[in-house]
Each structure stands twice: as C-alpha cells, then as structure tokens.
Amino acid sequence: MDKITATIVFESLASGVRLDIFRLLVKAGEEGLVVGEIGRALGIPPTNLSFHLKALTQARLLVVEQQGRFQRYRANLALMRELIAYLTEECCSGHPEQCFDQDSESGCCDTQTPLS
To answer: Is 114 or 3 the better-scoring residue by pLDDT?
Structure first.
C-alpha cells in the first residue's frame, strides 16, 4: 500500500456513518449484507445510505456484487489487512510482532493486530 491509497481510505472512513457501515460489514464477514439490511441495521434512509456506500466503494473499502435485483456489499478485508500492515510495518524498528501482545483485543484473521 502507498501513502495516497492509505490517505484515500482514511478520508473515506472519516465519516461516522461510513465507519459504522464498514464495521457492520466487517462483522457480517464474507456473507456481507444487502442494502436494505444495512439501512435497517443502522437506521439510515436509502438516499443517504446510497451516497455513503458509493463513497466507500470508490475508496475500495467495499466490494459490491449484483444478485438479481439486490446489491450485496462486503467489506474488502484484504484492503483492511493491507492498511494495518502499512500502518505497522515500521513498528518497533521493523518488527511489528514485538509491538502487540498475545492478548490483543482483535480477533481479526487470527493475527495480532492493533484493532480495537
């Protein structure tokens, strides 16, 4: 990952609504959610939701798949892991494994990451 991509990702997540959407889709995992499910779960009107989903998709944080009349959204977990790696690659003089303890609050991908 490069600095420009990381900046785009962070700018996209700077909205509280977008952060809520992304976290919800991370929680949903590979199954993802269709637009109506996202809207109901977060109480976001369809027009507002569409705007935020478009921004997250353009930032590559979400992957969308057409399923009949529905669009299913999934968090781009590979990009999330890439961002975490980018943020921690210089941690502890290039040894990020030394920076995080075994009791990390994140269970993401069975790795020790600083998410919480």
So the answer is: 3
